[in-house]
Amino acid sequence: MFRTHTCGELRLADIGSKVTLAGWVQTVRKFGSITFVDLRDRYGISQLLFGEELNRELDRNPIGREFVVQVSGIVAERTNKNKQIETGDIEIIVEAFKILNGSSTPPFTITDDTDGGDDLRMKFRYLDLRRNAVKKNLELRYAVNRAARNFLHQQGFMDIETPFLIKSTPEGARDFVVPSRMNQGEFYALPQSPQTFKQLLMVSGYDRYYQIVKCFRDEDLRADRQPEFTQIDCEMSFVEQDDILNMFEGMIKYIFNEVKGIKIKEKFERMTWEYAMYHYGNDKPDIRFGMTLQHIEETCRGRGFKVFDEAEKILAIVVPDAGEYTRKQIDELTEWIRRPQVGMTGLVYIRCGNGGAYKSSIDKFFDVESLRRIATACQAADGDIILILAGKQERTIKAMSELRLEMGERLGLRKKNEFRLLWVTDFPLFEYSEEDNRWVARHHPFTAPKPEDIATMVENDPEIKDASQYLMHPYAGIKANAYDMVLNGNEIGGGSIRIYQRDLQEKMFAALGMTREESLQKFGFLLGAFDYGAPPHGGIAFGFDRLCAILGGSEGIRDFIAFPKNNAGWDVMLEAPSAIDQSQLNELGIVVKGY
Known about the structure:
By secondary structure, the chain is α+β, with helices and mostly antiparallel strands. The protein has 17 helices and 22 strands. A hairpin with a 4-residue loop joins strand 18 and strand 19 (438-441). 33% of the residues are buried.
């Protein structure tokens, strides 16, 4: 054995014991005839004391940062205790040491407050993973993984693996494709999710399935998105929507208790998609704070203010107790909403003073009584500031939703150590693509309509000859038997009750513009399975990386993945993707065009 104990294990009770440790040198501090070394491994840090004799040996055979060493010695009580580490009461009086491997000078300091930038740390990710901050993230990830598995096992779920080399069935994000050497000119795809496999498992009688599984989507990237990501993927048979919601609400409560020590006793709030869009402007609302959207068109029009009179939508939020919010801060917000990412041209404000005094950026058009009516419509009180946006409906709703979140951030209302969960239900089954002049599935094409909408689905022809007709089509009102779980304004899970009857599934494919031949070519295996006694079933998939990041107090998922890619989908450490040898291309029968 290279060690009898780990570097984070020894305590005062071990004083006098002879021990052997092995690990990496964190720091070397020479004080005359003695040297102190901090030795680090995955479990912690132990201080080593090299006395006068061994100090001379260190002069002849020096060690440096990140050297791998083995030491033997006696556990002693430290004189200068370090309360910042768990082993801070003891040190090892070294009797013998051995350099197991040297180290080049690291390109950045391997400490929590490292001097390495993102690109440098990603290039040397194997060094970055030694940092305690990253280690804690991976430990949290493992704890969430373990808790989810324990809960699902206790509830009778079975972990069943599904293939990674599958058929390409583009519907949603782009597939990553894999050429087949044995079948030249043909390709596998990497799964965007195990969706059809888990439905087939339900047909096979495995009524409670799960995987913690890799999924692949060729999408544009951002802080909370990777080309390969992990899902907690689950499916159940003989269930209705409430069965799914209650089961996985229980799983998340179990994870919070096991990982964070937080006991959530109350049921998660539930709201419909329409309610979320009307009051928050998005379908994953952050309910840690108020400032809900106020629809004030009727109150604001007819005063000769062109911006309001010509706007499709006029929205407001009330910033509470903002009497000291300065004009400079409001001007900064105006510049913020003019950014291309938000896309608005201006911001109107009304300051609600004491005793009915109002000051606004539209005093030229609105007298005090008119401002009071707006304040009353918004339920604003003395000391509040009303922020108003007006313009095209879709853009204004999106912009006000983003402004609400920005104000919550600026006012410190989006606390990372506060967790609010809810279910959003009753999504539209379809969205209309004006570009393609056809319906597309809002969730995926295997999502069932609400039971009361099945007749509408079956009896109506989905064809639309003009884009302006789509809102009048009966399909526009069909609700999906679907649900999302939202945590602090982030969708962490989404699922649905599935279609399990062949005729309804074929109708769904037709609504999405697929011919009968195309649906058989892409999904004939699933349609065929529905002919052999498919049970009612439904499920949910959780974004595992995102859940871990939120529990760890982070906005992005990269530091909770051992070997992530950057925002361009590039693995800086491996330098991948990369070109492959011409001989490999020849074997695959592939010719690469020049770019």
